[in-house]
């Protein structure tokens, strides 16, 4: 899947579809959340991988590249041996965090009821 070319065939200029398709995939919000837990300190790739143990190295790389392409994450490479690469959130992402945190809060508040409804629906 080419994550750099997400476009809705019927509505290619729709900002909601275009932005949410990239931001709301399986891993992007989790990576942003994990980087935010580090406060303002940059995070190395292996640290992210340890914090999100069920993401593959390939998918974490792809997700970070996509977030960097869209301006949510910065990637800093230090010319050392071995090379050191650090990731951090951008000001754009910090402006998004209150909305992400509100969504997380809503999910926590409603999780039990949603799970109960899912069980009920499976019994039908």
TrEMBL record:
Coiled coil: none annotated. Residues 14-115 form the HTH hxlR-type domain. InterPro entries: HTH_HxlR, WH-like_DNA-bd_sf, WH_DNA-bd_sf. It holds the Pfam family HxlR. This is Helix-turn-helix transcriptional regulator. It comes from Bacteroides caecicola. The keyword Transcription regulation applies. PROSITE patterns: HTH_HXLR (PS51118). Keywords: DNA-binding, Transcription, Transcription regulation.
